[in-house]
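Write out the bound-state structure for zinc ion.
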Amino acid sequence: MNNTKEHIYSILAEVTDPEIPVLTILDLGIVRDLICTQDNEIEIIITPTYSGCPAMDAIAFDIKLKMIEAGFTKVKITYTLSPAWTTDWMTASGKQKLNEYGIAPPINVSSRMNKLLFDEDENIPCPHCGSTHTKLLSEFGSTACKALHQCMDCKEPFDYFKCH
Ligand SMILES: [Zn+2]
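---
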């Protein structure tokens, strides 16, 4: 059974976010559980990153497709909305990949306890040069999940994956 789970996780590691292809669904931390029933049905429980995010349909489709390709034909995908996904669930390697992709990764909600002490928008590190001398251009970047910032040092605009 554990071998099966490990195998399934290795399949899920090939499913990427359609909006951010460098991130797998394991990087995002949206896979909550796997249940293998006795009649070989696999239930995959995922938590949507953003409710109503159209990317979730594409992700569920990709999971099914990858599972079928691997020989698992009885696959059920269940969404669980509680507890709600937060950007804290994203793995450290996921955040690193995001930064290398040119999107500033979310700053942990837990570390934002200091939020009142400074204006967060001024302090998103630039994914290109690392400068914190950045400014918010728009609350909405290439998608509603991101905000558009610009670095004042290297002048590059960049997306910031918003916390929630
Ligand atoms: Zn920069």
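---
Residues 90-161 form one domain.
The pocket of zinc ion is lined by residues 126, 128-129, 131, 151, 153-154, 156 (CB under 6 Å).
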